[in-house]
Amino acid sequence: MAADPLTPAVSDRICKHMNDDHAEAVLAYARHYGGVAAASSARMLAVEAEAMRLEVDGQMLEVPFDHSLSDSEDAHRTLVAMLRALPQT
Protein backbone atom coordinates (compact mmCIF):
# COMPACT_ATOMS: atom_id res chain seq x y z
CA MET A 1 0.00 0.00 0.00
CA ALA A 2 1.39 3.38 -1.00
CA ALA A 3 1.88 6.15 1.54
CA ASP A 4 -0.57 9.05 1.57
CA PRO A 5 0.51 12.46 0.25
CA LEU A 6 1.05 14.97 3.03
CA THR A 7 -2.29 16.77 2.58
CA PRO A 8 -4.04 18.93 5.21
CA ALA A 9 -6.33 15.95 5.99
CA VAL A 10 -3.31 13.67 6.56
CA SER A 11 -1.71 16.38 8.70
CA ASP A 12 -4.89 16.57 10.79
CA ARG A 13 -4.87 12.78 11.23
CA ILE A 14 -1.22 12.78 12.34
CA CYS A 15 -1.82 15.67 14.76
CA LYS A 16 -4.89 14.03 16.30
CA HIS A 17 -2.95 10.80 16.83
CA MET A 18 0.06 12.59 18.32
CA ASN A 19 -2.01 14.80 20.62
CA ASP A 20 -4.30 11.96 21.75
CA ASP A 21 -1.75 9.15 22.08
CA HIS A 22 1.70 10.75 22.31
CA ALA A 23 1.28 14.06 24.15
CA GLU A 24 4.59 13.53 25.99
CA ALA A 25 6.39 13.26 22.64
CA VAL A 26 4.84 16.52 21.40
CA LEU A 27 6.01 18.25 24.57
CA ALA A 28 9.48 16.73 24.10
CA TYR A 29 9.63 18.11 20.52
CA ALA A 30 8.78 21.58 21.86
CA ARG A 31 11.35 21.40 24.64
CA HIS A 32 14.24 19.95 22.66
CA TYR A 33 13.77 20.96 19.01
CA GLY A 34 11.79 24.13 19.70
CA GLY A 35 14.14 25.34 22.41
CA VAL A 36 11.36 25.92 24.96
CA ALA A 37 12.96 24.01 27.84
CA ALA A 38 10.39 25.13 30.40
CA ALA A 39 7.34 24.27 28.24
CA SER A 40 4.46 22.85 30.28
CA SER A 41 2.00 22.11 27.47
CA ALA A 42 2.23 21.51 23.74
CA ARG A 43 -0.19 20.52 20.98
CA MET A 44 0.71 19.59 17.44
CA LEU A 45 -1.27 21.77 15.03
CA ALA A 46 0.13 20.77 11.63
CA VAL A 47 2.71 18.61 9.93
CA GLU A 48 3.87 20.13 6.66
CA ALA A 49 6.69 19.20 4.31
CA GLU A 50 9.22 21.57 5.89
CA ALA A 51 8.17 21.76 9.55
CA MET A 52 5.71 20.87 12.28
CA ARG A 53 3.67 23.64 13.84
CA LEU A 54 3.05 23.45 17.57
CA GLU A 55 1.17 25.49 20.12
CA VAL A 56 3.41 25.66 23.17
CA ASP A 57 2.04 27.29 26.32
CA GLY A 58 -0.31 29.33 24.13
CA GLN A 59 2.40 30.48 21.68
CA MET A 60 2.89 29.30 18.10
CA LEU A 61 6.16 27.50 17.38
CA GLU A 62 7.52 26.04 14.15
CA VAL A 63 9.98 23.15 14.38
CA PRO A 64 11.77 22.57 11.05
CA PHE A 65 12.57 19.10 9.77
CA ASP A 66 16.06 18.20 8.56
CA HIS A 67 14.63 17.43 5.10
CA SER A 68 11.43 18.03 3.15
CA LEU A 69 8.89 15.32 3.97
CA SER A 70 7.63 13.41 0.94
CA ASP A 71 4.53 11.67 2.33
CA SER A 72 2.84 10.27 5.43
CA GLU A 73 5.33 7.41 5.80
CA ASP A 74 8.24 9.85 5.67
CA ALA A 75 6.48 11.97 8.30
CA HIS A 76 6.07 8.93 10.55
CA ARG A 77 9.70 7.83 10.14
CA THR A 78 10.95 11.36 10.74
CA LEU A 79 8.86 11.99 13.87
CA VAL A 80 9.92 8.65 15.34
CA ALA A 81 13.60 9.30 14.50
CA MET A 82 13.42 12.76 16.10
CA LEU A 83 11.99 11.25 19.27
CA ARG A 84 14.59 8.47 19.37
CA ALA A 85 17.38 11.03 18.93
CA LEU A 86 16.39 12.86 22.12
CA PRO A 87 18.68 12.45 25.12
CA GLN A 88 17.25 9.91 27.53
CA THR A 89 16.60 11.22 31.02
Assembly of the depicted chains: single chain
Describe the sheet with the most strands.
Answer: 3 strands, antiparallel
Tally the helices: 3
State mean pLDDT (0 to 100 scale). Answer: 95
CATH architecture: Alpha-Beta Barrel
Our estimate of the beta-strand percent is: 15-25%
Question: If you compute it from the alpha carbons, what radius of gyration comes out, rounded to the nearest whole angstrom?
Answer: 12 Å
Alpha-beta content class: alpha+beta
What form results from the Cα inertia axes?
Answer: globular
Helical content stands at 40-55%
What would you say this structure looks like, in words?
42% of the residues lie in helices and 20% in strands. With 89 residues, the chain is an alpha+beta fold. It has a single domain, classed as Split barrel-like (Alpha-Beta Barrel), CATH 3.20.180.10. The chain has a 3-stranded antiparallel beta sheet with strand order 1-2-3. The longest helix has 14 residues, at 8-21. It is globular. 21% of the residues are buried.
